[in-house]
Amino acid sequence: MSVTVADLLKLPSLRQAKVIAGHGGLTKTVSSISVLESTDPGVLVDEVFPQGEYFGSEIVITGFLNMTEDVEQQYINMKRLAEGGEVGLILYYVGVYLKKIDKRLTDFANEADFVLIVMPEGDVTLRYGEAISEVTALILQDRTHNTSFVSEILERVSSLPSHLRTVGTILKMLSDRICASLVLCDGSLRIQNISAWPRSGEAAVKKGIESLDALPPDQQSMVCGIFPDSRLYRFSIGKERGAGLELLVLREGLPLDASVLAQLQDVVRLGVGIWGQNQGEMAIHELIRAILQDEPMRMRQLSHIFHINVADIHEMWLLHCEENQTERFRREGLALVREHLRHYCHTVVADLYEDQLVAFMGWIDHVPERTLISRNLYARLEESGFSLSLTRCYPLDSTSDVRRTYLLHQEEIATARSIWPRHGCYTMQELDFAAGCRRILSDSEAALTEALAPLSPLTDVCEDNALPDTLEVYLLDAASSVQACAELLFLHKNTVKYRLNRIRNLLGYPLGKMPELFALYRAVALSRLISSK
Question: CB within 8 A of 6, min separation 6: which ones?
């Protein structure tokens, strides 16, 4: 958990304070407390809080002592505090120096969920230091006992106004949290973002980084002389979608704990993915990554941020294209897939992951037959020049199901394509069948001989392979259609009928009879796999 504004109101120094506006912000996280009393009201607006900058989820103490009669400046300063990411204002000495609180301030606080707290009115004995000491102690205590901060940072950023949801904001939050300077560089080590600790040291940090002769290798650190007793850490971020970024962490004093460093990388990678330059694409990529890695907590975090109801998703499609087409598929095929599916789904989460397209869908009620939808999509992609396979995986009721099915696909899609090379579109059940066939092939010779036994009446006859070949195409490729089988073999329909009748006579049972058909189907599939090798 994190310290919220509501938690502060339970402290002895703030117990008698009243919230007069902005109640919607009581659950906001408080990272620190500060005092702002400017001799020139314009300084706060123009210098301390420049437009568009984030300066932390602080709660601010003030008495508006230098603008007690100027409601316009009170409003402007309060508005800029809210725009800068501050969570609220604690007003002191109301009824003493500040005679009253104008309605304009309370209206803005309610509109912006900016908590406006008033200390006991008319009390001249109040001291800023009491609240500062207790709030600081509570925040430090919380950080000592709650060392996990990934969820906290993501939730804090997602609750900010859109113009503050940036990578720079995340770096500032993290810098405040771990008391270290953070520098984000591109693949050529050119500085893209920087957040110094303390903030006044930004120029020194930038100059020091740029003057270094060498940086530590990825995931390692080194002692450096930028500041006394300082250590520089380096981490590569987000290389799976391009050139990637380099995160440099400069810390004075005690080294950073391994757990903190792991969380730091996590937050920055997610932050770059969600709120970086290509934020729409990267956000979906991170959500898919969380689902496929069976990380339900992160999945819920990301789906909440982007208002996606993952509970509606029970089906996953995997599209695997030729390696030399991956980049073109990223540019052209991905948009085609999303456009196609949005006609039938209220939720579509699709992106390339590990060089194949992964799509999760929540279907609209009463959609047409889904097999037809997948075949139409496959046909459209083929017409666009893509050589690929499409696998429908359903039903999926948990992230564990998704993870298991994804790994099954990775292991068995090549086997499935060998069994059904003409299909193009596959199902999870076919992957399971392919896995079973592969296990038999890797088992003992006796097991394989037993599995191939249903074909022995055909292979024992003294003639060519016409009958086994016809049966193979009929069952595996033609979906037991005489017409389709004839077309695939370039034979007359009557010839196929004649061969199938001979096969029935030799086997001693109809080709559609279960359970004999299952054993026969598996034997044909195994025979094809052996031939393909």
Answer: 26, 27
What are the residue ranges in the chain where pLDDT is below 50? 39, 41, 44-45, 52, 242, 278-280
Which long-range contacts link 283-292 to residues 24+ away (Cβ below 8 Å)? 284/349, 284/350, 284/351, 285/241, 285/351, 285/352, 285/353, 287/349, 288/349, 288/351, 288/353, 288/358, 288/360, 289/353, 291/360, 291/399, 291/402, 292/353, 292/358, 292/402, 292/403, 292/406
Q: Supply the pLDDT for residue 273.
A: 72
* Residue 244 token pair: 């990637």
At 41 the pLDDT is 47
Give the long-range contacts of residues 382-388, CB within 8 A, separation 24 or more. 382/424, 384/332, 384/333, 384/336, 386/321, 386/322, 386/325, 386/328, 386/329, 386/333, 387/321, 387/322, 387/325, 388/319, 388/320, 388/321, 388/322, 388/325, 388/329, 388/424
Q: What is the pLDDT of residues 310-358, one digit of tens each?
A: 777 788 999 988 888 888 888 899 889 999 998 888 888 888 888 889 9
Parallel, antiparallel, or unpaired: how do β-strands 315-321 and 388-393 relate?
A: antiparallel
Contact 399, 294 (CB under 8 A): yes
CA distance 64 to 66: 6
pTM of the model: 0.56
Residue 353 has what pLDDT?
84
